[in-house]
Amino acid sequence: MAEFAAHLNQGTSNANPTIFEIVAEESMASVLRPAVSYALKVLASSNPDRWGWIWRFGDECHLCLDYVVQNHYLKNFGGSISEHFYGLKRVDRGDAGKGEAGLSSFQKYLSLIMLVGVPYAKLKLDQLFERLREEYASGYLSSYSSRKRSYFIHLKRTFIYVYPFLHFTWETIFLCYHLLYIFKFSSVHSPLLHAIGVSLERLTRQDIVTHSAQNRLPSILSGMTVAERISAIPSSVTQLITSVLANGLPVVVFFLKFIDWWYSSDNKGALQSAMQLPVPPPPPQPKPAQHGVQLPPHPAQCPLCKKVRTNPAALSSSGYVFCYPCIYKYLNQHGCCPVTHLPSASKQLVRLYVDDEN
Ligand SMILES: [Zn+2]
User: Fold this and answer.
1) 32, 137, 165, 238: which has the highest count of C-beta atoms within 10 A?
2) Ligand 1: centre distance to CA 305 (Å)
3) What's the CA-to-centroid distance between 337 and ligand 1, angstroms?
4) CA 174, CA 154: separation in Å to the nearest integer?
5) What is the mean pLDDT of the chain?
6) Packing angle between helix 233-262 and helix 58-77, nearest 10 degrees?
7) Distance, CA of 178 to CA of 187 (rounded, Å)
8) C-alpha of residue 302 to centroid of ligand 1, in Å
9) Which GO MF terms does the UniProt record name (predicted)?
10) What is the CA(298)–ligand 1 centre distance, in A?
11) Which residue, 190, 202, 245, 171, is CA-closest to 26?
12) pTM (two decimals)
């Protein structure tokens, strides 16, 4: 584990992590969300009728999971899961460098907001921007501008123009902090940590000894009566879960990093040799969901409006074809294919440029 590497560094270098450790820690934090999202998608695709909702609330599911995990790591190890994996901890900037500095409970609470709440809010704003930009590009915003709701349309347009500048400023501030940290003008690498008065330090030898004592499974069952053993079950189960969380999650994260590397551009050679196999047969037609929209009698009709399709668009998750405006609106409201209920998004729409479908 990385903390043991940090342990070897003790005494030879100062407590501040290098920019390489920080970049590695940040890249690991960004791997967790796609992994959770992929797991939820697999679950929703296995039974769209029962688990379809979980995909629609995927970001919220990730938010809850992230809260539980980060809260546990902040309380027990004084850092986020990725910081702990790389042998780092959060310390009060006022006490930095003193070795035994820890976080106040208020700083832990603020850290939790910065670790969980801020990325969630940023993600939601990014998604809103993408959606409004697509609506604007498809002329959906301008078609309503002359009539009611013009105030909201104006607000949406302003957001489309302003948001890229806000995003640019946000990213630039982070970049400046990184540069200042590299040239040792700043002791923190992030404006979020600066705002809550916290900086990162490497784990000390004492921290590692304390953490490994926390993770060890309790041997409380030896030398107890039956009644004492039964009463000890809840606390030992809690300790077991904590221990599994502490020891298991870094292993899961390591495998996620491995999978990320395997499918990355660095590993294209291995994938190309796999792609030289014979062309597989096409996948079977996905089954219409029990409470899904009924298929129309004629293949040229749109399953949603039941009229002859205009402006046809295929949904790549299921393969069914609809009118583009019909399916675009449906996806924005429901986030799934109307026929199969498979989780889908508007970026999975493929416009079909054909003159006559008959
Ligand atoms: Zn239609």
Assistant:
1) 32
2) 4
3) 13
4) 31
5) 79
6) 120
7) 10
8) 5
9) ligase activity; ubiquitin-protein transferase activity; zinc ion binding
10) 13
11) 190
12) 0.65
